[in-house]
Amino acid sequence: MLPLVSITGLNHHGQPILFGCGLLHHESDSAYVWLLQSWLHAMSGNHPVSITTEPDHRIRMAVAQVLPQTSHRFCRWSIFRETHEKLRHPTFHEEFRKCIHETKTVDEFESCWQALVGRYTLADNEWLQSIYNARHQWVPVYMQATFFGELYPTEETSLNMFFDGYVNATTSMQSLVKQYESAVTSWHEMEIKADFETANTTPALKTSSPMEKQAASLYTRRAFLKFQEELVETLANPATKVEDSGTVTTYRVAKFGDGEGGHIVRFNPFEMKAICSCHMFEFSGIICRHALSVFRSKNVLTLPSQYILKRWSRDANISTHSLTVRYNSLRKEALKFVEEGAKSIHIYNVAKDALQVAANKVKNHGLVLNQQTPEGEKEKKIRQLTSELENTNERCEVYRSNLLAVLREMEDQKLKLSVKVQNARLTLKE
Ligand SMILES: [Zn+2]
């Protein structure tokens, strides 16, 4: 039996996509090192920000060697599955899950874990001891400020999601290629379907906030639904100012009636930056309800540009910056052209002429670009102006929110005065 190792990622709809895969002759440190090195080469040497793998010491070693700057974590789903197999206790697993998913700080997790192993007298259990020793690589509380691009972190998904239902341990070498192609085609179709749905249908808005409208037009549907969930939750999570240092204001954002709980948001109105202690934005790329609640209280009506990541936007897969992407895109188009052009002698002649015209255009355009001196001057100016525009927009946003706050204050004063006048009138009548 040869192990099939797949390297997958998540696209802008949160669906799995295949970056590469390999059949290993045997599982060893050097085999995994070779696989990751080959993959990195195919990715033009671009290291991923983060990687999730099976909890395996050989993979751990290979990742540390080949991808030293990449944040590496173990798949929680695999750890839960193995814990379930090794410890057959009816109530333990529910408590175990809570301890992993619901603790918000390292201290909270540590005391929860100690209490749990104490209650079930499992302090000497080797498996629990080993996963506890590796806790920095799989317990969410230790990795919440690292980007993993997951919209729903508590959703437990298998790392093999891409090939689930297509390839398993009994698949023969002959049917592997066929099944591989079916999996690739099927996920590709699902991506097209999700792209189509995002582009051609409108999601139902739940608030009158311009920010929700803005997000609906920018995000893919799945990312928007997550954003919408967070936005709606701001109604139940008010922000209370706890400190003001002039440039940064600190808020506590908690559910109604949640005493001293909740999260702390540090808001800088000049940079339109809101950093939350839950680190959801850093982890998933979608801003959390706590930061949104602060925006709401400060009348920030549109989502500041730094909170809209391209990876969750509708045009996330349109990029021509990478040589590999340009090469693959042109090759795909050229193949279609060749297939179409070879259908008959007449079409072949038309195709040949068209190709000659296209070849001349490409050649001449290359010359025009090369003659431009100094190179990139125009792009530099555009970048500079874009950044100035962004800064001006952000300043406008601050002025607008300050103005709205003054207007609201005036409205309040007016209301108070009219109540006083009303009372005075009543008193006079009496
Ligand atoms: Zn938060």
Attribute tags:
single chain; 430 residues; alpha+beta; 3 domains; two-stranded antiparallel sheet; 10% strand; binds zinc ion
Concise description?
With 430 residues, this protein is α+β, with helices and mostly antiparallel strands.
Polypeptide structure, described:
It is built from 15 helices and 8 strands. The protein folds into 3 domains: 4-135 and 162-183, no CATH class; 210-312, no CATH class; 323-371, no CATH class. By secondary structure, the chain is an alpha+beta fold. Helix 1 (29-42) packs across helix 2, helix 9 packs antiparallel against helix 10 and helix 10 crosses helix 12. The radius of gyration is 28 Å and the shape is flat. Zinc ion (ZN) binds at residues 263, 276, 278, 280, 288, 290-291.
Work out the count of structural domains.
Answer: 3
| Rg from alpha-carbon coordinates | 28 Å
Calculate the mean pLDDT score and round it: 88
Strand content: 5-15%
Number of helical regions: 15
Low-confidence regions: none
State the share of residues found in helices, binned by percent.
40-55%
